[in-house]
Each structure stands twice: as structure tokens, then as C-alpha cells.
Amino acid sequence: MRPEKALALGDEPEKVPDVAQVLVRFPNGERKGRRFESNTLYDCVDSLGLLETEEYSLITNFPRTVYRRDK
């Protein structure tokens, strides 16, 4: 599943107003950053292979907001 999700991401988009830049911090302390055009963030996190679970939440620092896959 991981390679398919990585391929589905395509090339990283240029830095423009409609693109979000995201830095993900994993439980082991490792950080990965990428820009996204659409709702492909979960595919990116899944493709990195740093989590041993399929259930996780994404959390913003400020304002603190928890995003689950079903949101």
C-alpha cells in the first residue's frame, strides 16, 4: 500500500497561495515536510512508513486542532 500512495502524490507543487506547507513530526522525533495542493496529506504520511498503525490523528499547533481521518 505504501508505494501506491507515494506514487499517487505526484510531484510536490510549487509554493503558491493555494498550496499548504506541512511539517509532520512522528513519534520517534523524525520530521518530514512537504507542500500539498489537495487532500493528499494522509497518503503522504502513509507512504513514509514511519507509523506502525493505520489509525492516527493529525494535529495543528496553533490553534490546536485534531484532525482524524473521518473529518
Per-chain topology:
Blueprint: H1 2-9, E1 20-25, E2 31-36, H2 41-48, E3 57-60, E4 65-68
Antiparallel strand pairs: 1-2, 3-4
Characterize this entry briefly.
This is UBX domain-containing protein. The protein has two helices and four strands; from the N terminus they run H-E-E-H-E-E. It is an alpha+beta fold and 71 residues long.
Annotation keywords:
71 residues, globular, single chain, two-stranded antiparallel ribbon, alpha+beta
Radius of gyration: 12 Å
Compute the average pLDDT: 81
Number of helices: 2
Helix-strand string: HEEHEE
Query: Uncertain runs with pLDDT below 50, 5 residues or more?
Result: none
| Main sheet overview | 2 strands, antiparallel
Pfam families: UBX (PF00789)
Domain UBX: 17-70
Keywords: Ubl conjugation pathway
Organism: Brassica campestris (Field mustard)
